[in-house]
Amino acid sequence: MADFSHRAATSADIGLIHRELMDLIDSMPYYNERFKTHEKARFDKRFLRTLLAIDPWHILILEVDNAPGGFSISGPDCGTIFQYWSCVFPAHRKTMLGMYGMRAFIEHWDNSRFHKASTYVRTDNKIALRLLERYDYECVAVLEQHIFGQDYCVMERKFTKATGDYDRGVWLPFGERIKIRLQDLFDR
Length: 188
Fold this sequence. Notes:
Blueprint: E1 4-8, H1 14-27, H2 33-42, H3 45-54, E2 59-64, E3 67-77, E4 80-88, H4 97-109, E5 116-122, H5 126-134, E6 138-147, E7 150-158, H6 174-187
Parallel strand pairs: 4-5
Antiparallel strand pairs: 1-2, 2-3, 3-4, 5-7, 6-7
């Protein structure tokens, strides 16, 4: 039986996560081409490095026998943690890694600085909707023709906010932003 574990991402993970995310976006049948193009441009390596600099746990690596088998990408937004993308690599899609990843995400972020977790799911992505509902997410709204003409469910799960502070969203001080831009130059 495979051993599942999880950890926060490091800068060494960015290339793998970016490549797997681009493959995932391309392969998803639920999204139109305009959305895919938009997401692939938005989730460039610079954005992933920014999330890493804000908090390495915003890119949660799911491991199978100590090797990456998937990930969850999230970001802060004024007391809510938004789940952008979750992925189980193709070799592990018929395992329990997705369910393990949901539990790991919730256990890490609940009882911290967020009131709730939130995500958008296409209304016809029944598998994702069932998985989220299994972990106490509920559909709080259906946004019709919301993103490039497609319908989305807003799925949320309440958390226990245990700290008084609030994040500043996906924002970094000037020095950190320059450091990430320099990393981009060396990445080309």
